[in-house]
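The authors assume throughout that readers already know how a fold can be written as discrete tokens. A single example would do more here than another paragraph of explanation. An entry of this sort, consisting of the sequence and the corresponding backbone structure tokens, reads as follows:
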Amino acid sequence: MNASTHRQHHVKIVESFDLAQFELGSTTKLRVSMVGNGIGGLISLPVVILRGVEPGPVMGLTAAIHGNELNGMRVIQKVIAHVKPTRLKGTVICVPVVNVPGYLNNTRHFNDGYDLNRVMPGKRNGTNSQVYAHRFMTRIVAHLDYMIDLHTASFGRINTLYVRADMTNPDSAWMALCQQPQIVLHNTGADGTLRGAAMDRGVKSITVEVGNPNAFQSEMVDDGTTGVLNVLSRLKMIEDDEQQHPGEPVVCVSSYWMYTEVGGVLEVYPQLAARIRTGEVVACVRDIYGDLIEEYRAPEDGIIIGRATHPVNQTGSRVIHLGIEGTIDPTRPAPAAGPVDPDVPNGVD
């Protein structure tokens, strides 16, 4: 074979599948066709089916619904390598890249410019992203009992390892704590998110934010993998013991982003997971000559869930994602995740 010849994996392309068709104790790689592209070919979804030898739940692992959020893809690859179908109860459906066009273009959004995690559950007859979302729900999510949706921060920002979950829901609560995150953010999935759409269909779901975009972070990936395996262990799908992490996560009952009011060069001071106090200076903006234009102070006590890292700041850029600690009242519904805007709104997956 010529050294320059591109290696192709011969993987079957299907439009749908029935879990009963897969051999017990097997690993099957598929391409699930989603939509046609502009030259009449197919955009297909990489899927790995781990079919156990005994009955059990169906767990879905999804990543890269935002195409440049890559740590979750590596988490799924490590879970696939670790879980042995011959010792598995139930089935694990792994989708390492949900947003295939965005992943190939190294962009957050789908190839029609929309955020795929704002159009769920999509429409049968809709826009490009709506049709793709609808088919993802009917061809993948419809099979699931549980789902862990893996994300990272977006470009120019960094995140703690944190989980978004409705902590008044017993199933999503224990799934969230199994991740052993730094922070748990209590809310429902907003309209349009994969988590929200899955929960509406009875699929017990959480969103796990695994660090930063456009890179593999080995420590974050290892922690994310441990969290997934802990859930599989708690469900008795695998024989591994749950791995315990020292310390308890910080539980936040709400969160929001601070935004700049002037343009210039942004510098953010607090580190991730740092607790800050009301009035503490958290950032400043300087002009291009280095002269101070404005300082930004914390409006209330909180903890840093995420923060901006990109210095080039136009008015309205994000500064810090501030989590507000509190006690969850199990008798009250979880708060909504916040208003949906075209990018990353306050507290939304």
Notes: The chain has two domains: 12-234, 256-325. The helical segments are 71-82, 100-105, 128-139, 170-178, 194-200, 218-234. The chain has six helices and 18 strands. Residues 339-346 have pLDDT under 50 and may be disordered.
